[in-house]
Amino acid sequence: MDLRASVKMLLVLVLGLPILQAVLAWVTGLLTAMGDPAAALVVGYVNTAAQVMWLVCVVGLLVTLAMRSLDESDKPNA
Fold first, then answer.
1. HSE-CB for 57 with a 13 A CA cutoff
2. How much is the mean pLDDT over the chain?
3. Among residues 7, 19, 44, 74, which one has the fewest Cβ atoms lying within 10 Å of its Cβ?
4. Residue 1 carries which DSSP code?
């Protein structure tokens, strides 16, 4: 996978995962209000995993953009 495709994929994940987190937080609140704390706990764990994935994607995007920037700066100007 080249750097451009990696940046695209990571950008989609960085922008999409917060939407998933918001939906999971809403579902957790809904399940808690319905009286199902066990399911709310499981969805809360999934939300925590999504938060960790988002943080990893942000760091990966930063590193990938830095690599792409360094790769472009090595090319001579035409």
1. 19
2. 92
3. 74
4. -
